[in-house]
Amino acid sequence: MTETNTGTETTTDGETADVLVVGSGIAGCSAALAAAREGADVLLLTKATKPDDASTDWAQGGISTTRGDPQSLKRDIVDASDGTADPDAVDALVETADDAVEDVLVDTLEVGFDESDDGSFDYTREAAHSDYRILHVDAATGTHILRPFLNHLDDHERIEVRQDTAALELITAEGRVHGVVSDERSSGKPIYAGATILATGGIGALYGRSTNPADATGDGIAMAALAGADVEDMEYVQFHPTAYAGEDPFLLSEALRGEGAVLRNGDGERFMDEYHPQGDLAPRDVVARAVETERAETGEVVLDVGPLEFEVDYPGIAAKCRDRGIEGEKIPVAPCEHFLCGGVDVDKEGRTSLDRLYAVGECARTGVHGANRLASTSLLEGLVWGLRAGEDATGFDPEPVEAPELRNRDPDLPERFAAEKFTRLTQTMDEYLGLERNPEEIARASAVLRRLKGEVDAYIRTRTARDLYELRNASVTALLIARAAGENTESVGCHYVATDPDESTAEPPADD
Ligand code: SIN
User: Which of 253, 287, 331, 374 to mutate to test the pocket of ligand 1 (most atoms within 8 A of CB)?
Assistant: First the structure.
């Protein structure tokens, strides 16, 4: 053990893997599979203890294919993004989408996608898609993909999946990433890797209402940013328009509207045609703001599932409604944090700006989503970029450089420290960095978040508690969002800047 000139203790006493993947959603699983197929020994770390700790398991609508027409899907992705998606990144997605779905999901995992009576796939549609091209298993697609995927990796001789293990810090030397320090021992355990792939998912825990699992604390984004990696588009936080409006929100998939469900305001009237030519199937950012406006003006918005065979075709969502005591066909809805379109900036192979560090899935910013993501492209992006990154990340030898040995000198936190700071953080994000922002409120949020991060940093230097690192990661990620939101004064996609604080949350209805 040595002491560096910053006073941080270091160690080289750890384990090694050819490829280290952090995160166990579809992107991490795909990366692990691709690296193992190339002959690499893969260690996949996940802080999850069960599949439904990953957002993938919660994904409802489905996974988009191109159905043989990549240019049509590309047009829809670019249009939904308000013209901001990177066309080259979208090409990289659509050109390999169908092969990736067929290879991994259909042939390898044998996912039982819904079929029509004639045995062909029963494709569904969601908002802003011009065609029926989404593969699904009723509206519980993520579960039906992730569980066989994890089983497949468990049986793979080159892959070890280690649960309930969090990565706390990246190990870096001279611009290269050499692995992570995990929380497997109290002073942190170095795990060295030829290449490290972050697949840590989203940021839902930063907001009071989210469709993500509770541990979506932006870990990969924060670790990468702290190590000096470039992050981009952090202001583009997507809110899903239709989550249950009550306590403990849950998603009401866009597939419901794709198949005929409609939004109604508190006067019982349909309203989306007044906001956008695509009506109820307008891009997600437009619908979310319209729902918020109608809720403010008429008291509530409901999703009317009367036109559907709701109980038969969507048993999982119907069961959630019953659990909450929601009766009848009109389900109260409100927007809810759903997906971060930005993240760690990567190229087409998932390479970040740091050598041998990759990022895939929601923690990565590929450019595909621009300022607003098209429905059912997140599982697809995770699959495609996971495969590309896993393949590219092989062939490097682990180099056991000195790693930070974390301090755990004063393990007991003041009771409820992390929980209380987390509450302050989520209140700040909800109030100032939600569906609508304005420059004054963004500045106020930045000030609060900077103070909060300072308090957390003081504790991090002396303790390795996982909840403290999650709080550190959430506060770093929140600050990145605030900074990006402050720097972008233009309303685009899901970054809506109201210059007048009294301004409505949505564009005025087209006819007014
Ligand atoms: C949904 O089912 O509405 C969500 C799908 C997605 O976020 O892509």
Answer: 253
